[in-house]
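Lecture notes, part 5. Sequence design as translation. It can be helpful to think of inverse folding as translation between two languages: the language of shapes and the language of residues. The source text, in structure tokens, appears below.
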């Protein structure tokens, strides 16, 4: 189940990256806004239903106040991603602004670094969700919830893969190379997800904190990068509807399957 879920999220990134082979340089700004907004909506809903609520329930089941690890882990996750943003040079195609320390690295590398960096909390979220399910094997609903999260993250990885590959194609990179780089940008998700699963036995006592940590890291990505980029320039309503659609789909998946 775990390998299936982690494999699915990577597969969807690869499928999204194939847009570079199909669309070439013809994709427009509206498409990018919808993709970015959709990813933001999925991540917001996943942060609440798949991470924060389970973190609160897990802490309360252990006899602790649920809000403490939820709030504490959230804050740590936010500042963890903030620190990575400050330490690692990267470039977001929509804003065309270099973030992090000054760098002489190629523009295409900086573009890929941005998405690869922000895929880390997504992989952690899926892995931690399966790790939580493994700790409570008697509760089938937790596995269903983990699969719902993997499905939701996988669905949003399709436009996210396209959001990596298409700008690279527009930068002049060959279609095949843009597709390959887009696929590789999502490779960190199964890697960090697998690490979380392997460490499940060790991290059990702090699971509520780690779930909230992943939620905070994802919310940082949404507020700092995805939503602002989805609303740059004209046709910002496309990004807005993308957010709403992503939120609705992820919420429905988690409630219906969880």
């Amino acid at each position: 189940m775990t390998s299936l879920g982690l494999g699915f999220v990577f597969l969807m990134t690869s499928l999204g990256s194939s847009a570079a082979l199909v669309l070439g340089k013809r994709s427009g700004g509206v498409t990018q806004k919808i993709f970015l907004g959709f990813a933001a909506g999925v991540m917001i809903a996943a942060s609440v239903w798949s991470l924060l609520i389970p973190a609160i329930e897990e802490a309360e089941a252990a006899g602790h106040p649920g809000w403490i690890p939820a709030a504490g882990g959230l804050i740590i996750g936010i500042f963890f991603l903030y620190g990575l943003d400050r330490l690692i040079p990267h470039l977001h195609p929509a804003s065309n602004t270099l973030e992090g320390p000054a760098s002489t690295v190629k523009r295409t590398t900086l573009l890929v670094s941005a998405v690869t960096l922000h895929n880390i909390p997504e992989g952690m979220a899926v892995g931690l969700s399966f790790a939580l399910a493994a700790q409570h094997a008697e509760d089938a609903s937790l596995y269903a919830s983990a699969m719902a999260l993997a499905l939701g993250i996988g669905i949003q990885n399709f436009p996210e893969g396209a959001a990596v590959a298409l700008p690279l194609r527009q930068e002049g990179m060959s279609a095949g190379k843009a597709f390959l780089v887009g696929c590789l940008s999502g490779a960190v998700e199964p890697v960090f997800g697998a690490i979380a699963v392997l460490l499940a036995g060790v991290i059990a006592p702090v699971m509520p904190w780690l779930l909230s940590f992943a939620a905070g890291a994802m919310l940082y990505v949404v507020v700092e990068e995805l939503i602002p980029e989805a609303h740059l320039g004209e046709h910002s309503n496309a990004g807005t509807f993308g957010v709403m659609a992503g939120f609705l789909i992820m919420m429905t998946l988690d409630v219906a399957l969880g």
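The translated text above is only one of many valid answers, since several sequences can fold into similar shapes. The CA atoms of residues 112 and 186 lie 10 Å apart.
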